[in-house]
Write a structure and sequence with these properties.
Number of domains: 2
Structural class: alpha+beta
Order of helices and strands: HHHHHHEEEEEEHH
Helix content: 40-55%
Number of strands: 6
Shape: elongated
Distance between the termini: 66 Å
């Protein structure tokens, strides 16, 4: 059912009270919802475009220069990279929380790639993939090598066992499954020692040297 209202038009024509970024953004988001209920395109709706301009004007008046904003954005990005959310998300079910699920597995893949590099696995022989699965499933990220499989999940039924790994034979998992806590995915030296102690040398001699 489509129906239109006057709310977004009134605010766009008289943006009183929309002089702060939170208020201007809230008005824009509400207008987008109104526009969709009316079955109209937000790309050409005059009220939407006016409210976007109002938001831009407010941001320009209250924010630092573009160069300062870009610098701060880079610093914020570096801070996020230095403190991955992976450990904060771990231990929780993320099946119904897509942003958390996407973030966990993105960071898990990056950590697996770093681990493969440190261990000395040939990148041509190692594949890193994520199976996101259904909405009610937490998903799994995996590093698969001809000699090694490492799987990472956000939450395990056993404590300190978000990581499972075992040797592979011809690229297929074989032998005993070993477990490790999620923190070791970011502590490559600790995980190297665990690999050496459980399944032996994998990849380049770097692994044995780190034991």
């Amino acid at each position: 059912m489509f129906y239109d209202t006057l709310y977004r038009h009134n605010q766009a024509l008289s943006p009183a009270g929309l002089e702060s970024v939170p208020n201007a953004l809230h008005a824009l988001n509400a207008a987008v919802d109104d526009c969709r209920r009316a079955g109209k395109s937000i790309a050409v709706d005059a009220s939407i475009l006016l409210l976007i301009r109002n938001l831009a004007d407010v941001a320009e008046r209250t924010a630092p220069s573009i160069s300062e904003l870009r610098l701060q954005c880079r610093l914020d990005r570096s801070a996020v990279e230095a403190s991955p959310a992976l450990l904060d998300i771990a231990g929780n079910s993320v099946g119904g929380d897509y942003p958390a699920k996407r973030t966990f597995h993105y960071q898990a893949r990056r950590a697996l790639a770093r681990l493969a590099e440190v261990i000395g696995l040939d990148p041509d022989d190692a594949r890193i993939n994520t199976a996101m699965s259904r909405d009610d499933d937490d998903g799994t990220s995996e590093l698969r090598h001809v000699d090694l499989s490492i799987r990472v999940v956000p939450r395990s039924f056993l404590p300190d066992s978000e990581i499972t790994f075992n040797r592979c034979r011809n690229g297929e998992p074989a032998g005993q499954v070993h477990r490790a806590p999620i923190a070791e995915l970011l502590d490559t030296a600790a995980f190297q020692r665990r690999l050496t102690a459980t399944i032996g040398d994998i990849g380049a001699p770097l692994l044995a040297a780190a034991a």
